[in-house]
Amino acid sequence: MSExxxxxxxxxxxxxxxxxxxxxxxxxxxxxxxxxxxxQGLDLEVRRGETLCVIGPSGVGKSVMLKMLIGLxxxxxxxxxxDGQKVTDFEEDQEFLPVRRRIAMVFQGxxxxxxxxxxxxxxxxxxxxxxxxxxxxxxxxxxxxxxVGLPGIEQKKPAELSGGMKKRVGLARGIATDPEVILxxxxxxxxxPVNTKRIGDLILSLKERMHCTSxxxxxxxxxxFQVADRIAFVxxxxxxxxxxxxxxxxxxxxxxxxxxxxxxxxxxx
Length: 269
Hints:
This protein is an alpha/beta fold. The protein has a single domain (3-112, 179-264), classed as P-loop containing nucleotide triphosphate hydrolases (Rossmann fold, 3-Layer(aba) Sandwich). 37% of the residues lie in helices and 23% in strands. It contains ten helices and ten strands. The strands form two sheets. A six-stranded mixed sheet has the order 6-7-8-3-9-10, with helices on both faces. The longest helix is centred in the C-terminal third of the chain and has 18 residues, at 193-210. It is globular, with a radius of gyration of 19 Å. The two termini are 34 Å apart. The model is unreliable at 1-19 (pLDDT under 50).
């Protein structure tokens, strides 16, 4: 069966085909905030080394999915697995620390500490998670700034940076610990087309350098088609469809195609 056929077969079905040893897996996950039900039976698997873009309308819980994976938000039911560990069995925040050393999250607004320099911002996770000599910290900070195209700005403060530069410093901080997985939460929000393309290029270059797995939550379809190996479409509290970029472009589901093409008609009552 081709992947395009597989996507069509899954439309309207919450069950995602499973692999024997998935790297990351959400299985039957439920999540609500009070009376607002965000997920009901969330099923999704992520392959080691791939870039999976998670798309869907605003407010459907795409960022919530990332936060549940690293324990920033609890689940109500179901299982979340990472590399053979059932992280939904963890009861204490401390139990998540080894997982968070391997999974980095790049937040939508960069989440830089305004009172700290760029150097101190990027060094922060290195000091929190490891015991390293200062010369090694300095080497890693310089290396990561070089990787994101911002060498030599260690002593600047966030207030001195443009929006695009802040995004890249946030990314440098995220990769400072050499994570195996990078979670990108709306990495191009608020950026002009040039900086949007630059962030997409960085996602691709970091995958090449670090051989990492990437989950990218975004509304920006140009970024999706630039970086994605596969796409997962979130709608109505579940994964409605998942497949390659080619398969999703030609999906028989009007909602999937409508979202990708920017057509509001399928979403109107």
